[in-house]
Specification:
Helix content is 44%, strand content 14%. The chain has 270 residues and is an alpha/beta fold. The chain binds phosphoenolpyruvate.
Amino acid sequence: MNTSANSSSNRTPLIAGNWKMNMDHVQGSSLLQHLAEALSEAKHDYDRVEVAVFPPFTSLSAVQTLIQDDGLGLVSGGQDLSPFDSGAYTGDVSGRFLARLGCKYVLVGHSERRTIHGETDEILNAKVKAAYRQALTPVLCVGEGLDIRRAGTHVQHTLAQLRASVDGLTTDQAAGLVVAYEPVWAIGTGEVAGPEDAQEMCGAIRAELAGLFGQDVAPKTRLLYGGSVKASNAPSMLHETDVDGVLVGGASLDADEFASIAGFERQLAG
Ligand code: PEP
């Protein structure tokens, strides 16, 4: 078990909600208020389990204003960023703008960005570096499609994505990084990988990071599982040694469900 209650790990669990292209700024404000209320009713300890939301760009300002004005313990992040800091890149959003809004995190390389927008590992490496230039923490998403899973080469495939995306990072950057293992076949499909699948990959990712950045760095990097996570399956995922959190899509749009996921420790204790 990898919660802050466990002395074997100092990694604070991260429960991250990817709203994708849902929730305009009015809906997003309402969802955030409901989420904050649900977490407050559950007496959520944000220092113990971090909770982050990733609204669409146009909702970020409203969400971030609520977080700041109401002194909420939640944090926010962007769903993507440009590899560049400014300039003639129509439609792109700079990490500098996200940082200025008060975002802490930014998703990099979600499978929908890789598939729909053709983002390569080289582009994602540039995006990870762009995030660090603005003191944002990248949540780097990696994972295999169903064909690769069936071929049994999912570990090699995912580690190759990881290596290419973290190329050139400093040891401090690697230690602060968040990596989300998201098997593409389990995203938005209702198909959930088993806890042993999540542990197999997260263990392999941590071992790879140890090889790349050192044995003292890899234990600090937080690793998430993502793919059809709900309140009912989150505790078993988070029970695994190398799973330090979850990246949640669909279920993060339901404030009570997402708050229950964030309260996974109660279910593990009960
Ligand atoms: C995601 O979009 O990152 C995700 C994991 O989605 P879902 O939880 O809906 O599978």
